[in-house]
Amino acid sequence: LRQTIREINLTSSARFKETFVAVNEQFSRTFVELFRGGEAEMRLMDEEDLLECGIEIVAGAPGKRMQNLMLLSRGQKARTAIAAEIADTTNPTATRPIVSAVRSSGRAASA
User: Fold this and answer.
1) Whether the predicted pLDDT of 105 surpasses 50
2) ∠70-58-94 over CA atoms, to 5°?
3) Cys staple from 40: which of 59, 79, 104, 108, with CB 3.0 to 4.6 Å?
4) CA dist 69 to 9, 11, 39, 44, 87, Å?
5) Per residue in 45-74, pLDDT tens?
6) pTM here?
7) Sequence-ordered list of residues with C-beta below 8 angstroms from that of 62, at least 6 positions apart, any chain
8) Which segments within 14-61 are labelled E, that is strand?
């Protein structure tokens, strides 16, 4: 039973990492489109424990430095959240969208 659990965890971690990378790349592109520049990314809080870690979102509008989502203006937060949702829901590799999983688990540091 323990071996089976380990195998499931390894498979789940690998699938999550693959999906996270794809969603993060799309998120960065979508953010740039919505803001007409700038940069944004999602960061794993603990890459050693992918199944339990939180996700931090950092972003910077054009001409602004990158900072934690919580430090952005309301309008910037809203557009950043829209970019994350679009990236997440348009990802063909996701079986369960990352943003939805983070929201339901309450494990996000910034989302």
Assistant:
1) no
2) 110
3) 59
4) 29, 30, 12, 14, 16
5) 998 898 888 999 999 999 999 999 999 999
6) 0.79
7) 35, 36, 37, 38
8) 39-44, 55-60
Nearest to 25 by CA among 93, 71, 77: 93
Contacts of 58 (CB under 8 A, 6+ apart): 40, 41, 43, 66, 67, 68, 69, 110
Looking at per-residue pLDDT, the higher value among 45 and 98 belongs to 45
d(CA 15, CA 64): 34
- For 60, the 3-state DSSP assignment is strand
Handedness of CA 82, 85, 90, 91 (dihedral sign): positive
- Please give the Cα distance from 42 to 9 (Å, whole number): 22
Six-digit token string for 76: 């910037």
Distance from first CA to last CA of the chain, Å, rounded?
35
